[in-house]
């Protein structure tokens, strides 16, 4: 109710400013009455004794729900507190659903999330007094697909956990009555508030046992699962959820103990990590594409706001650009972090080609012809800086440049890659940034790409010309490296072609029959035959080159 009243109060203020001061304005009377109601509710809700009682109640409720989520008979009839302590320490992992858990009303969990979020926002210094069970239940149920199958409900636990991230709220904090009370006084600065938040909260989450073992897998799972919720606005809601998940993930991975959990995901849940990275790259591609489309249009309409319709359209575009920029910035920051922390995972065969294509495309868009249309007159307003985005892209290239497969993937991109485009990008970065070391390393990469491009063109052209039809992928007409047969259509494709297809659409592309990666039939004999043929042909090509070079030198 308080949140609704604050929103209404804000709307009334804008309407009063629009119509100006009048001798008798009923909206002003409504505003004054609303302010009295808000102040009355605040005086009650922000009472320390009430908040402490709420904290105690919902901590006990968290313990009860956790106890109800397992089968105590399997744990020697231990007491509630003993079972909770074992869950909290990670000795008991919540996985199988107890029958009793099914009878817990959904509104109890939603109320718990709302109250914990409220306390963390208005009285964070009180949360460390008995608030640990609320963190434990947030991580456990966020991580359990069996207990809460609805990903939208599970994602709400992120609203609790994100309050532990320092300076999160400072990004979009707006002054209002509630937040003024949060600061303790209207004169207290935001910086002081967040120092207080850091002092009381960051160490709680950082030192929690489940942060190191279950939080990172839980964040990756919800990042994947939120793709489909069944809600009418699921496409747009998923971005807000993934934004929070990315924020928390980047923060907790700064702890070396937690970062080891991210590496453990590579070993324990490789498919989850793969799907998470695929969704992250896909989101970044969509968001940057939106910005590249919307920003030039916004630049034009911002100069033509002489009519009310254009002003409303401009406001809509401002909101859309702000939202896309916020989410894109977080996605690119996370990819930047992962490119230095887990580069091998971004270089998996199922990801590497598409990831290289996306990097190439947006590098050209940010530095090539037409890049001036992406430069906003007020970049701080939207937090979109083409030069900063370009620098991050160059750093990602640098982090992955150790891989010859990555270099081959870059030059294989016929849409965006050219030596000229990359040299233009280096010149652009040199004139817009002071990071000379990064630019120098990028120029070294360009020289290496020139050699790779020449070698790859010669090899691929030679192999395709010489290859029998049964060695070629029927979709891409490229030489297959790992042929597999589809059980429904009996077609033989390269594994990378069909697995990339299955990440987006789990169906046989020829018959539309349901298909999973596990159902693919490996053609090991054909694979060995192709590899032997390929090695033989490349050896012939190298001999021809050496012979030609020797003849040239002798002449």
Structural description of this entry:
- This protein has 555 residues and is mainly α.
- The chain has 24 helices and three strands.
- It has a three-stranded antiparallel beta sheet.
- A hairpin with a 6-residue loop joins strand 1 and strand 2.
Question: What's this entry about, in short?
Answer:
The protein has helices at residues 2-19, 26-45, 48-68, 80-88, 106-122, 132-143, 151-155, 158-161, 177-182, 190-207, 209-225, 234-252, 256-268, 270-301, 308-341, 343-346, 352-367, 379-382, 386-400, 404-411, 419-432, 436-466, 495-504, 524-554; strands spanning 483-485, 492-494, 521-522. With 555 residues, the protein is mainly alpha-helical. The N and C termini lie far apart (90 Å).
Largest sheet: 3 strands, antiparallel
Total helical elements: 24
Shape: globular
Side by side, the strands of the main sheet go 2-1-3
* CA-atom Rg in angstroms: 28 Å
Content-based structural category: mainly alpha
User: Taking all residues together, what is the mean pLDDT?
Assistant: 83
């Amino acid at each position: 109710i308080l949140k609704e009243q604050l929103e209404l109060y804000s709307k009334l203020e804008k309407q009063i400013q629009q119509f100006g001061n009048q001798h008798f304005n009923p909206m002003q009377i409504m505003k004054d009455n609303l302010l009295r109601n808000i102040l009355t509710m605040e005086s009650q809700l922000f009472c320390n004794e009430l908040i402490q009682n709420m904290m105690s109640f919902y901590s006990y409720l968290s313990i009860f729900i956790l106890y109800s989520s397992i089968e105590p008979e399997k744990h020697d009839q231990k007491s509630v507190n003993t079972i909770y302590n074992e869950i909290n320490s990670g000795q008991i992992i919540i996985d199988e659903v107890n029958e009793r858990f099914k009878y817990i009303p959904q509104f109890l969990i939603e109320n718990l999330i709302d109250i914990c979020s409220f306390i963390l926002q208005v009285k964070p210094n009180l949360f460390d007094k008995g608030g640990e069970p609320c963190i434990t239940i947030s991580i456990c149920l966020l991580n359990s697909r069996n207990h809460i199958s609805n990903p939208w409900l599970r994602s709400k636990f992120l609203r609790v956990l994100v309050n532990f991230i320092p300076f999160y709220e400072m990004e979009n904090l707006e002054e209002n009555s509630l937040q003024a009370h949060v600061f303790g006084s209207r004169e207290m600065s935001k910086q002081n508030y967040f120092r207080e938040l850091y002092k009381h909260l960051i160490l709680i989450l950082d030192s929690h046992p489940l942060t190191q073992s279950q939080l990172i897998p839980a964040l990756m799972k919800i990042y994947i699962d939120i793709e489909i919720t069944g809600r009418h606005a699921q496409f747009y809601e998923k971005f807000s959820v993934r934004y929070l998940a990315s924020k928390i993930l980047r923060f907790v991975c700064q702890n070396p103990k937690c970062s080891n959990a991210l590496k453990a995901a590579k070993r324990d849940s490789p498919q989850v990590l793969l799907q998470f990275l695929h969704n992250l790259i896909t989101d970044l591609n969509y968001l940057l594409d939106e910005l590249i489309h919307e920003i030039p249009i916004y630049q034009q309409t911002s100069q033509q706001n002489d009519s009310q319709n254009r002003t409303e359209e401009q406001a809509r575009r401002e909101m859309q650009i702000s939202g896309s920029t916020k989410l894109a910035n977080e996605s690119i920051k996370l990819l930047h972090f992962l490119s230095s922390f887990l580069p091998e995972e971004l270089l998996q065969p199922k990801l590497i080609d598409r990831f290289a294509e996306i990097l190439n495309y947006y590098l050209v868009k940010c530095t090539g012809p037409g890049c001036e249309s992406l430069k906003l007159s007020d970049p701080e307003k939207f937090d979109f800086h083409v030069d900063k985005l370009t620098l991050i892209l160059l750093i990602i290239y640098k982090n992955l440049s150790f891989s010859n497969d990555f270099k081959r993937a870059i030059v294989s991109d016929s849409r965006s890659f050219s030596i000229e485009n990359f040299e233009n990008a280096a010149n652009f970065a040199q004139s817009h940034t002071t990071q000379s070391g990064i630019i120098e390393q990028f120029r070294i990469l360009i020289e290496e790409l020139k050699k790779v491009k020449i070698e790859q063109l010669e090899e691929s052209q030679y192999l395709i010309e010489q290859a029998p039809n049964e060695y070629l992928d029927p979709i891409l007409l490229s030489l297959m490296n790992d042929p597999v047969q589809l059980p429904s259509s009996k077609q033989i494709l390269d594994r990378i072609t069909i697995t990339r297809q299955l990440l987006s659409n789990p169906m046989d592309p020829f018959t539309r029959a349901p298909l999973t990666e596990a159902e693919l039939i490996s053609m090991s004999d054909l694979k060995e035959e192709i590899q032997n043929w390929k090695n033989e042909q490349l050896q012939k090509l190298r001999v021809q080159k050496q012979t030609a070079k020797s003849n040239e030198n002798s002449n």
